[in-house]
């Protein structure tokens, strides 16, 4: 008697009952859409509840329940941007479904759910994708489901991996070789596979090249687009140079504007590698410029001519005429923007064309479209030279005063950057530029105070002839009370105060400077700025007292000195108890000098009476009279470390090298700074043994590194000054040996101090280092091997076998798998012994293979 069948377990019963309940009470996609649209205010809660239901339903064993849940999830992902990554595995479960609707839904969901974090699941679908790709050769399947092969192609184009690409590459060859509606999609999938897996180049590259000569325009367009993307930066376009004849044939015969645009992009990358190509493409380009009505094609022709064919006069004239037509399109702002963009590409080789359109560019600065304004600003700065720098920069600053805050600061930033480039190369008249900097600072919306202050101080250090104008501009900035309330200009006011004190000898009224520096609203300034103000007052006071003693200035007398002392003591006195240490320190120094000067009963009287005080005043003036100069940015790097200096050594024995006076000073002030002694002081101070050693070492240091120090000797003659501060009009030696002047100016520029010529050429050298050859990526290397007739390495079949698949039958290609060289060597030696010898006998000689390694296209060029 047969035993009864086993009863189902309780778990399986519950699972089937749950699945049946989900299928009976499951909401469809229509129900989900209606619920979302019925109450827009509750949309987030409805979607959250729906996602919870989908997570439960998608685990169901019923394919219909799973497909409906996946359909709803696809809708939410497409319109509400919810992640589908959690459903990636369940999507793979529906790929083998016999239902066309379910299979299509599964492929759509797979293209949405797979991304770099879930591509590790893709190898699970390799067999199913291979089966669907090869279903084209089966007449029954293709007649039943004609769209079936397009689904895996779509998935490969959007979501793929290197492993999946290497396995499915042979399945794409029949689709690329047969003219069908699926061929363009196969080309798109091939581009994706080649990008992810360069080892598939021997299999797919030749069929992809054959698509360029297809009778189907869509296939040709897809193939040109694929090569355009493959040759785009950062890839190396050199391997695609042998394809120039095929691309040229497409350029001449195609009637599709988009295909022509892609072909022109390819040629724009190939012409710099092979300039002779420019002679061949200039005729079709000129034809398109003259006859085409498509603005997109005309624009691409203009870009190609400007970037690759600058020496072809006729083509350049046509391109410039077309640019002017784009600029004159008043009814279409997009065309005006594109016209400005292409106009900027003409610099610096065809500045005459930019000058012809200067008025149009200037009017574009006031355009309501912000993009047009930005592009016009870029073009305006590109056409700025020494000859027109005053006109251009003045126009831009005036426009900044009338523009909105954001664009106004962009204009100021462009002017500041361009004028300060290469040690103010564009600036001929520094008096004008200094006044322009002051005008920039007074613009209401100016936020470029840091850069303006840096350039004011830098010009004062480098350009001696500009110092009188600097003092005048600094005075105007200091006496303007409206600037004290703008926190963006605190650094500008600090720089103005420093200039007023450092170059006070160029001031026409020192008393006016003191009043401006001590006005009541200076309390609004931060601590750092107030400290500079007080220090500048000390410099002005010292200079005024010394000028009165020497009777070298008629502007300073007893009344002026008395007023100055009274004003300083009344204004600065309360700050002696300031909580800011730096302000308090400088205030006490200033008050000490004031009390010292106040003790002089009669500054014009007998000097022997108060000889000590007079001498102190002179010493104070000498303290601030040494001229400050710029320091090279590379000075510290160029000082070589002495061989006997160990930077890691313990400094415990430092006391042996320090004199008693230095030790006492260092104990009293830990942050003391040591300065070199002046020539006069060195004669009066008694020199001890330790001081002699230190002085000798200092002289040796200056002798070795004297290049990085500025001369502080006031008795220097004029010829020596000329050597320290070389004239700009004198030819300076450059690294490239070019000693010719670029621009001839009528007005001689003032002296601009340049301590380090290497620093001057840093910009050009950095730019030259950026212009490097494209990196030889694996894809480019594989394509070179194929075009040169070499065999590919790695897990890829030979190019000859894949390229001959059309003549020997596609069944043979479909049955092949990608083999490595190691696999070929591992085969039976007895079975392939004769073939292997025959293969070695037919191997080309080394000279022939060397000749084949040069991908030339001489016949095409001739």
From TrEMBL:
It is found in: Endomembrane system; Golgi apparatus. Residues 795-807 have a biased composition (Low complexity). GO terms for biological process: Golgi to vacuole transport; protein targeting to vacuole. Residues 831-842 have a biased composition (Basic residues). Belongs to the adaptor complexes large subunit family. One of its GO terms (cellular component) is AP-3 adaptor complex. InterPro entries: AP3_complex_dsu, ARM-like, ARM-type_fold, Clathrin/coatomer_adapt-like_N. Residues 47-594 form the Clathrin/coatomer adaptor adaptin-like N-terminal domain. Residues 808-830 have a biased composition (Basic and acidic residues). Residues 794-862 are annotated as: Disordered. Adaptor protein complex 3 (AP-3) is a heterotetramer. It comes from Rhynchospora pubera. This is AP-3 complex subunit delta. Pfam families: Adaptin_N. Keywords: Golgi apparatus, Membrane, Protein transport, Repeat, Transport.
């Amino acid at each position: 008697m047969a035993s009864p069948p086993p009863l189902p377990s309780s778990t399986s019963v519950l699972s089937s009952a749950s699945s049946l309940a989900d299928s009976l009470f499951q909401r469809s996609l229509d129900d989900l859409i209606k619920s979302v649209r019925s109450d827009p205010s509750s949309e987030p809660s409805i979607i959250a509840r729906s996602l919870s239901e989908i997570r439960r339903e998608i685990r169901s064993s019923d394919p219909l329940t799973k497909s409906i849940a996946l359909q709803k999830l696809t809708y939410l992902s497409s319109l509400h941007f919810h992640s589908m990554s959690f459903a990636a595995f369940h999507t793979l479960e529906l790929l083998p479904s016999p239902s066309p609707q379910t299979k299509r839904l599964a492929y759509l969901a797979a293209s949405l759910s797979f991304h770099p974090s879930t591509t590790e699941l893709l190898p699970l679908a390799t067999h199913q994708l291979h089966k669907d790709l090869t279903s084209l050769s089966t007449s029954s399947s293709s007649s039943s489901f004609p769209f079936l092969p397009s689904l895996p192609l779509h998935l490969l184009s959007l979501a793929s991996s290197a492993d999946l690409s290497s396995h499915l590459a042979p399945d794409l060859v029949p689709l690329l070789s047969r003219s069908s509606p699926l061929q363009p999609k196969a080309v798109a999938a091939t581009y994706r596979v080649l990008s992810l897996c360069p080892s598939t180049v021997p299999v797919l590259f030749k069929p992809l090249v054959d698509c360029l000569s297809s009778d189907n325009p869509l296939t040709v367009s897809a193939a040109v687009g694929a090569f355009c993307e493959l040759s785009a930066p950062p890839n190396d376009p050199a391997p695609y140079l042998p394809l120039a004849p095929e691309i040229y044939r497409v350029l001449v015969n195609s009637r599709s504007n988009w295909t022509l645009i892609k072909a022109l992009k390819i040629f724009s990358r190939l012409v710099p590698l092979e300039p002779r190509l420019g002679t061949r493409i200039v005729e079709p380009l000129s034809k398109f410029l003259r006859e085409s009505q498509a603005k997109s094609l005309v624009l691409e022709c203009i870009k190609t001519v400007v970037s690759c064919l600058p020496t072809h006069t006729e083509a350049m004239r046509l391109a410039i005429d077309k640019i002017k037509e784009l600029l004159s399109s008043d009814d279409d702002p997009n065309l005006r923007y594109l016209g400005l963009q292409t106009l900027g590409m003409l610099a610096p080789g065809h500045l005459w064309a930019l000058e012809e359109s200067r008025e149009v560019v200037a009017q574009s600065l006031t355009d309501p479209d912000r993009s047009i304004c930005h592009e016009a600003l870029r073009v305006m700065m590109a056409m700025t030279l020494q000859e027109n720098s005053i006109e251009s920069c003045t126009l831009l600053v005036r426009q900044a005063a009338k523009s909105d805050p954001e664009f106004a600061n962009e204009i100021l930033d462009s002017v500041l950057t361009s004028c300060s480039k290469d040690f103010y190369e564009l600036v001929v008249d520094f008096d004008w530029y200094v006044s322009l900097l002051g005008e920039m600072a007074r613009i209401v919306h100016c936020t470029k105070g840091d850069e303006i202050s840096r350039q004011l101080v830098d010009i004062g250090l480098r350009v001696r002839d500009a110092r009188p104008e600097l003092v005048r501009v600094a005075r105007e900035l200091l006496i303007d009370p409206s600037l004290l309330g703008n926190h963006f200009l605190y650094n500008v006011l600090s720089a103005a105060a420093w200039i007023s004190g450092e170059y006070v000898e160029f001031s026409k009224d020192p008393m006016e400077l003191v009043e401006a520096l001590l006005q009541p609203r200076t309390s609004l300034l931060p601590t750092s700025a107030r400290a500079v103000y007080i220090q500048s007052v000390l410099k002005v006071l010292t200079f005024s007292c010394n000028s009165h003693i020497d009777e070298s200035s008629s502007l300073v007398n007893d009344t002026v000195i008395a007023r100055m002392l009274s004003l300083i003591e009344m204004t600065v006195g309360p700050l002696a108890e300031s909580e800011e240490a730096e302000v308090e320190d400088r205030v006490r120094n200033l008050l000490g000098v004031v009390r010292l000067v106040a003790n002089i009963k009669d500054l014009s009287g007998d000097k022997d009476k108060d000889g000590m005080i007079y001498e102190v005043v002179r010493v104070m003036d000498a303290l601030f009279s040494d001229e400050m100069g710029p320091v090279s940015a590379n000075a510290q790097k160029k000082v070589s470390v002495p061989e006997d200096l160990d930077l890691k050594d313990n400094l415990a024995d430092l006391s042996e090298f320090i004199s008693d006076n230095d030790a006492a000073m260092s104990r009293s002030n830990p942050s003391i700074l040591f300065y070199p002694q002046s020539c006069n002081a060195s004669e009066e101070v008694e020199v001890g043994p330790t001081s002699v050693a230190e002085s000798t070492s200092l002289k040796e240091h200056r002798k070795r590194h004297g290049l990085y120090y500025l001369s502080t000797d006031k008795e220097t003659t004029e010829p020596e000054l000329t050597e320290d501060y070389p004239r700009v009009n004198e030819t300076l030696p450059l690294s490239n040996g070019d000693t010719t002047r670029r621009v001839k100016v009528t007005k001689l520029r003032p002296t601009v101090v340049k301590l380090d010529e290497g620093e001057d050429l840093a910009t050009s050298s950095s730019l030259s280092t950026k212009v490097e050859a494209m990196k030889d990526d694996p894809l480019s290397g594989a394509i070179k091997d194929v075009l040169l007739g070499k065999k590919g390495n790695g897990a890829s079949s030979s190019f000859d076998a894949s390229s001959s698949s059309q003549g020997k039958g596609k069944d043979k290609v479909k049955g092949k798998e990608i083999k490595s060289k190691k696999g070929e060597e591992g085969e039976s030696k007895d079975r392939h012994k004769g073939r292997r010898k025959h293969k070695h006998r037919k191997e080309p000689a080394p000279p022939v293979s060397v000749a084949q390694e040069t991908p030339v296209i001489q016949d095409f060029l001739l």
